[in-house]
TrEMBL record:
GO molecular function: actin filament binding
Keyword rRNA-binding: no
Pfam family, one: Nebulin
Organism ancestry: Eukaryota, Metazoa, Chordata, Craniata, Vertebrata
UniProt record, GO biological process: cardiac muscle thin filament assembly
Superkingdom: Eukaryota
Protein name according to UniProt: NEBL protein
Length: 111
C-alpha cells in the first residue's frame, strides 16, 4: 500500500484528466464560437460600414453645372414645343354667344 500511495502522489495526483482537442464536444464548441463571432462581425459591418458611402453635397461645382445644363435643355425643349404648337392654333372670330354677351355687357354698362 505504501508503494501504491507513492505512485499515486508522484504520477496521478494533481495532473487531472487530459482531454484531447479532437473530441466532438470541443469541436462543436469551437464551431459555435466561430459562428457567434462571425455574426457579431457581420452586425458590426452592417452598422458601421454599409450605407455610409461618400456623401456629396448639392453645391459642388460639378453638380451645379449639370443642374444648369439640364435647366437650359429643358427651357430649349419647352420653347421649341411652344413654337410648334403656335402654328396649330388660330384666332377665333366671335361666336354668336360671345356677341350676345358683349351686347349684354354694353347694355348693363350704359345703365
Amino acid at each position: 500500500q505504501k508503494e501504491y500511495k507513492k505512485d499515486l502522489e508522484n504520477e496521478i495526483k494533481g495532473k487531472g484528466m487530459e482531454v484531447s482537442m479532437d473530441t466532438l464536444e470541443i469541436q462543436r464548441a469551437k464551431k459555435a464560437s466561430e459562428i457567434v463571432s462571425q455574426k457579431e462581425y457581420k452586425k458590426d459591418l452592417e452598422t458601421e460600414i454599409i450605407g455610409r458611402g461618400m456623401q456629396v453635397g448639392p453645391y459642388t461645382p460639378e453638380i451645379q453645372r449639370v443642374k444648369r445644363a439640364s435647366e437650359i435643355a429643358s427651357q430649349k425643349m419647352y420653347k421649341g414645343e411652344a413654337e410648334k404648337m403656335l402654328c396649330n392654333y388660330s384666332a377665333v372670330l366671335d361666336t354668336p354667344e360671345m356677341e350676345r354677351i358683349k351686347s349684354t355687357q354694353k347694355n348693363i354698362s350704359s345703365v
